[in-house]
Amino acid sequence: MNKINIITGHYGSGKTTIAINTALRLAQNNKKVSIVDLDIVNPYFRTSDFPNLLKKNKIEMIAPMYAGSNLDIPAVNFDMERIISDSSYTVIDVGGDDAGAYALGRYAPLIESMKEQTDMLYVINCYRYLTKTPAEAVQLMYEIEQAARIKHTGIINNSSLGYETSAEEIEESHEFAVKISEETGLPLVFTAYRKGIDINISPKTEVELFVKPLWEI
Amino acid sequence: MKGNEALAEAAIRAGCRCYFGYPITPQTEIAAYMAKRMPKEGRVFLQAESEIAAINMVLGAASAGVRAMTSSSSPGISLKSEGVSYIAGSDLPCVIINVQRGGPGLGGIQPSQSDYWQATKALGHGDFQLLVYAPSSVQEMVDMVIKAFDNADKYRMPAMILADGLLGQMMEPVSFPEIQNNQTYKPWATNGHGNKRPHNIINSLFLQADQLEKLNFERFKRYEIVKEECPEAETYMTEDADIIVAAYGAVARIAKSAVHRAREMGIKAGLVRPITLWPFPSEIIKKSTENAKSILVTEMSMGQMVDDIKLAVECKIPVHFYGRTGGVVPTPDEVLNEIKKLGGAQ
Lengths: 217, 346
Known about the structure:
By secondary structure, chain A is of the alpha/beta class. Helix content of chain A is 34%, strand content 20%. Chain A has one domain: P-loop containing nucleotide triphosphate hydrolases (Rossmann fold, 3-Layer(aba) Sandwich), CATH 3.40.50. Chain A has 8 helices and 8 strands; from the N terminus they run βαβαβαβααβαβααββ. In chain A, helix 4 runs parallel beside helix 6 (134-148) and helix 6 (134-148) crosses helix 8 (174-184). Chain B has helices at 3-13, 28-37, 51-63, 74-89, 116-120, 138-155, 165-169, 209-229, 250-264, 282-288, 306-312, 332-343, and strands at residues 18-21, 44-47, 68-72, 94-100, 131-133, 158-164, 233-236, 243-246, 269-274, 276-278, 294-299, 319-323. Classes of the chains: A alpha/beta, B alpha/beta.
């Protein structure tokens, strides 16, 4: 795993799920991990919704100071350089689409200077409406790069339908993921699958879903 | 799909030709989605300069006989109220989506159901009603948008989807039905007379009192037909229930979880869920609660639906209330606690 892991993707593709799971895995190996909530375009379902889970696992959560409050304005007020140098690993959960990636663009020079230690991973989900075809997903990937002024280094296939996902549905998405990997020349880092089911694809990584419907709590 | 995206896609499938909107949390994804998809379909997406402009654009498009829609969230809907009244006064069909957030005033951006009164009683001045649908899942958002367009055309009246931020932001799998024919013949539309018919006039100004009264009488005669044909409600485990929870929208799903938990504890609980808020499904509620000992209304408001439930059951059984407001969402356990109190359990 690289020192800096930037997670990007379409709205609702599962960026936060991937970001939190990545941070948890690193923390379980006794690494000093920080997670940055850089989603300043949508105030719902983001990393800063899970402060207790992160605290319990000794992960430092960095979020816009007023996240979730009346002053939840689209502004970031933290020193990314300090965060990165203070931790062994940093996971950055970026906002959806190119709109969300603009906030990352501010840190492009910093990331560029640490290029060798950085992965920028593009999360894809073929069950999301506006990125259903490889062509649509690839186009959005380039739009994100343009906004972020950083190039991706890999693809994460998180094709799923939330709690209703079956192993077959994930396996059926493999072709979609491979196509995107081929078209972009980027490696398919892994295919994610929900804890409790298993898939016949490699490489694969188990993820736990933390975003729960309110009637199941 | 996200609830907001599903609302937008459903409108496109239902033949919505024009969308006019203005961004506001938590429904901005509707406009964002429409901006991407409508031009590709050769239709109109326009971000208006304000909510007021958007609703008046809907008035214009609906006058020309095309299916038109706008969407907003609570404070933005208040701004639209004048235009909604004009649309109703002109007997025009359209669809208005309200993804509610906490109020009053600018309120908050978390989910709420505190626009119930506004939607069902008074979204604007004058003698008129809206058809109001309250979805409780992303799939229902799809189905109801389609139905809202159809029934708005059928009865020549505005229809509203009264959702909330919880439904708008959550993601669930959905399927879209194949739609056969979504073009209604509208002989009244101002779409060019082509020298073949007299001019059509769309208007809501009638200075002669008896003329305006006549139109209002006619409109309310039509409402009587709507009241006959449109009320919908879901009943769940009500047959043998002692305590029936009445809830709509996203809260009905929380209430359903609470009903399950109560049943596991041996408390005979059930659920009645109004699907149309106007016309209110009074008959269904009355019948399904005939054998119950009490009713618990649960809402994300200060109890705006309570009076309608009391009227529906003709005050024959006690109606209690438990609600959260301001953007706070009740939990299944909170509702369960209230059920337990009424059930006499520990």
